[in-house]
Amino acid sequence: MSKMNLKTGRAYRLKLAFQDIYNRNYTVEIAEGEFKEWIQWAVRSKLPEFKSVAKTIGSKLVGILNYFEKRLTNAVLEGTNSMIQSIKSRARGYKKMENFKAMIYLMNSEHCIVG
Question: Which of 29, 50, 92, 93 sits most deeply, having the most CB atoms within 10 A of its CB?
Fold first, then answer.
């Protein structure tokens, strides 16, 4: 079966290799080399979706490598934005901006309380 060269197998190996770059404690220089190698592999994979992803990663590589320098992500910001969007949709709109701001404050302070 391994000799059948299945597209799903190639895609899965590419996915695992990409995850592996993040799971290792690489320096910026090593991570850059690993990403460039992965990009070349993805382009040669004959999988259009991975070729597109490789192009995007190549164009955003400087920003991606910031993670390996500072080990920070924007996960907290994305979570906060998700909560704000939930508040907004739950209310179906606020007549006054002050009420919307108050709900955001209340919901965020509720989640920030450490027990």
Answer: 50
Q: What predicted TM-score, i.e. pTM, was given to this entire model?
A: 0.64
| CA dist list (Å): 70 to 49, 64, 73, 97, 115 | 29, 11, 9, 36, 29
CA dihedral 61, 64, 65, 71 (to 10 degrees): 180
Contact 42, 50 (CB under 8 A): yes
C-alpha–C-alpha distance, residues 74 and 53, integer Å = 20
Contact, 22 vs 71, CB < 8 A?
Answer: no
Assigned token pair, 51? 């070729």
Q: pLDDT tens for residues 22-40?
A: 899 899 999 999 999 999 9
The answer to whether residues 78 and 42 touch, using CB atoms and an 8 Å cutoff, is no
